[in-house]
Each structure stands twice: as C-alpha cells, then as structure tokens.
Amino acid sequence: MTGLGFLRAVPLLLATTVTSAALAQVSATPALDIARMEQIVQSYVASNDFMGSVLVAKGNEVLLNKSYGSANLDWNIPNAANTKFRIGSLTKQFTAASVLLLEERGKLNVEDLVSKYLPEAPATWEKITIHHVLTHTAGLPNYTAVPEFAEAVRQVKTPQQLLALFKDKPLEFAPGENFKYSNSGYVLLGYLIEKITGQSYAQFVQENIFTPLSMKDSGYDSSIAINPRHATGYTHQGAQFSAATYVDMTTPYAAGSLYSTTEDLLRWEQGLFGGKLLKPESLAKMTTPSKQQYAYGLVVATKDNIRSISHGGAINGFNTNVAYYPQSQLTFIALSNVQGSAPDSMVAQMGEVANGKAVQLQSERKEVTVPHATLARYVGTYEVAPGRTVSITLDGEQLQMQPAGQPKFPLLAESQTLFYLKMANAQLEFSVDAAGEVSTVILHQAGRDMPARRISGQ
C-alpha cells in the first residue's frame, strides 16, 4: 500500500460546473435496470472484493438500499443500512464546504494567501492561496508519502504535529502551475478552520454540516471511543480475510477522518446539491474544476455529454465512492469495509447502466488466444502521467503489466487488442496503426479512459 493509497482521491467520472438551479432540470433517462445494478454488486461480493452497503437514489426516491457481508467477522455481525464506515477522502468535500461556509460569513476569501491566517507559514508558501490548497495546485508534498509517516500513522497527532511532517519540505512545483493530489493541503485547511473559528475541526463540521442536515450517524472518527454500529475494516487474499493495519484517526484529520452511512451520505448529497447548505455561488465554486478536473474536494467532468460529480476514499480496511449525476439527479453510494477498488468500479458501472450502456462483468469475459508475434508487439514502457510509467512484458505466452514500484499483473486477452485484469475490473486496449505500430495503450477503469503514451519499445 502506498502512502497515497491510505487517503487517496479516486476520481471516478468527471463533470462541468453545477449549481442548485440546475437541479430543477431533470433530464430524461433510460428506464433504470436495478436488477442489473444488483448483479454488478453481487459480482464483487462473490469474489470477496466487497462487503458493505450500497444505495442508489433518483432525487429523493431510494431505488436500491442493500447491505452485504459482515460489519464484524469475529462476531458474524452483518452490515446494515445504518452501519458506519470510515469514508477516507470523502472527508475532503466536507472540509471544502466548511471553507466555503466561512467565506459566506466573511471570515475568509478563497483567494486569500494562506499566510494571512498562518503567520508562521514558511517563506516557500508565500504565494499559496486557499484556492490552490483546495484544488491540489499548491505544490505541497503529500505527508502520507514522507518516510516519517509510517511511524506517525500509529500515533496520536495534533494538527500542528501533522503540519510539521511537511511544512519545511520544499514545494514540488510553483503554486498554480500544476496539479498533484496531496493530503497535506486538506490537513492545512482543517488547521485554518480551527485557527479562524476557535473550534476544533470535528466541532465545526458537526455543528455546521452534520446537525443542520440531520446526519445523525456521521462524525469525526476515533481510535479509542466506543461507536455503536461501526464496521471493522479488512483486507483479503482470495477468501482469506485479515484485520486491516492500525491507523490512529487523528492522523488523517481533515483529509480523511470522518465516518458515515449510505443514508447519511444521501442526506449530504441532497443537502449540498439541493441548496440546503451553500449559496448558489458557493456551490458553483465548489463544483468548478481547476486542473485535472479537480474542483473543491470533488472531481467534476463530462463523459459522453453526461455530467457527474464524484469522489472516492480509501483508508486502511475501507474504500468508498459517491457519484452524483445532476442531469438525472441520480446518486450512487458504495461504502466497503474491505480494502480495494470495488466501490470505484461498482459506482462507475452502475452509472453506465443507468445511462443505458452495456456493462460486462468479470465473470462474463471470455479469454481468447492471441499469436505470440502480436503479443510481442505490445511490449514496452508507457507513460501514464509525467513521472509515472507502466511496463508491458511478455513471459512466455502471457502479457504482464507492471506499474512502476508495483508487482506484475497478468493480462488476459478478450480480442487481438483488448486485454483485461482479473485483479481489478480494468481493461487495457492497445492502439495499433495501419503499419502495425503501437503508440498508445488506453486503460479503461471505473468509467474513465486513460491513455498512456509509449516511450520505449521492447
């Protein structure tokens, strides 16, 4: 597990700006195939990749609300609609909304420099604005990736101690020039909220978001407090489950320390996009993407003229994803107490089904034979993003994919150019020109198409 994986964003589907006024214009959608959505969920349950709760709603109408597997395997306690899950980086949208509430009250402006509220900020931060921090364009190094974090994650930490993990490290780029997802930014935002309000981050979110929206089963998590109906987090290898490694919940802080339920998160979606929390101009800011389609604690984009607003979360033993389609007012929520990417893929696939697209499950894929010469043509190194590569190798008659710093994963052929991974609900498609040359491979995963340019051959 990488440092980022513990509190990562999982951008699902991406969309354009949405305001509360747009919510009144509900577009026509195909008849929803709830039975197919349930098949999607069951496929992940059957492979032991998912235990948890799933909710699908259109406006205020709940269409699917089911739970699967165990909240606690030791006691064989089943998951339920009111089971509480750690939500990881879904926390970031609550932090972003808190900042916007303070802006509405005249306590700050998102274009203000961070140093205005943090006089002790290092000189390297002199050009960082709150907007930069909200959109991961500040250049702050990610504190969950620093060597000291491996020990810190098991300890009680104050916000000041968390800041110390990255405050004196050099910026990774000039503020506003680039995008790099960094949990450090949302730790900094939580600290600013506390400095400005005189309240703890937990108190502010409780009093200004959870209580007004009647989110009675949501809160700031604790590693020691008794919290009834709280799920235990797990990892798994095949059918063998293990308890997730320990994380003290003071360390994720405003980047990932909240817990919630599917029903409470529906209240959140309805409150946020229904105009119950923020003014229209604040919601517009929150849902306007900056770089890499990232807005304020949300991933916002359009695919096939269909808009979606989403975010994922991952924290030891838990993965989560929530997506909202403003044109159809569809909400998809998946909360899992098994570590892995199942919620991301499930939410993406259910969204595709809702929008009239065919979805193929892993169990429905058929492997075909591809000639050795064709397989050899795909061998090479591909650049997914600046500094991030994936290698395609050929072991005998088996293509293997290996992201930098990770193990190899076998690729199984569906056609001469399309391959799938059993370890994740993902496909790789090689682009071959008329001369038989390969220049690009496209990763299809969680509703996204991510091209990777070939930078070296065999």
Structural account:
The protein contains eleven helices and 21 strands. Helices cover 23% and strands 26% of the residues. The protein has an eight-stranded antiparallel barrel with strand order 14-15-16-17-18-19-20-21. The protein is of the alpha+beta class and 458 residues long. It folds into two domains: 4-354, DD-peptidase/beta-lactamase superfamily (Beta-lactamase), CATH 3.40.710; 372-456, Lipocalin (Beta Barrel). The radius of gyration is 22 Å and the shape is globular. The model is unreliable at 1-29 (pLDDT under 50). α1 packs antiparallel against α10 and α2 (91-104) crosses α7.
CATH class of the largest domain: Alpha Beta
Outline, from the CA principal axes? globular
How much of the residues is beta strand, in percent? 25-35%
Number of helices: 11
Q: Write down the overall mean pLDDT.
A: 90
What can be said about the biggest beta sheet? 8 strands, antiparallel, barrel
